Amino acid sequence: MKIGILALQGSFNEHIELLKKLNIETIQIKLPEQLNEIDALIIPGGESTTILQLLEKYKFDLQEFKNSGKPILGTCAGGIILAELGLIDIEIERNAYGPQLYSFIDKIEINFEKGKDNFKGVFIRAPKIINYGENVEVLGKHNNLKTNTSDPVLVKQDNIMVATFHPELTNDTRTHELFIRLVK
Fold this sequence. Notes:
The chain is α/β, with parallel strands linked by helices. It is built from 5 helices and 11 strands. Helix content is 24%, strand content 36%. Strands 2-1-3-4-11-10-9-6-7 form a 9-stranded mixed β-sheet, with helices on both faces. Strands 5-8 form a two-stranded antiparallel ribbon. The radius of gyration is 15 Å and the shape is globular. The model has no long low-confidence stretch (mean pLDDT 93).
């Protein structure tokens, strides 16, 4: 199994390091033809507008990649990109918790294979999923005590998974393990 990490901008090195812990072969994806070499793709957090412009400039066809059945994980900005390209049926609000100053770490609840468990969610200028279609499965939630809401933070639809947090900025590999199960 070989997982590609889109390496145009953002936290791609952190994903690579986390996948090394799981003995997963990775490749930095910088050109569209490299998509043929991989079994799955991760679009990292970063600046979504910049990443979208670079995807267009270099003529990446993520719709074709999705249609091939190969899984895609988008974290933070990567999730925004997948939503904006219409690859997953979610509506997402950029910087929903506020600017960089309001970034935070809080526990979230994720439905892992062995049941629900807590996970350290790192939210940096994080987006929020404000609406999702009936075929979208919510795998993780953040219970926001300030607003008394439970926000979806990890969702999946078919072969697409979106996290509004940064699992790559922790030492916990379980979110990536969930994604790897989509590849297998």
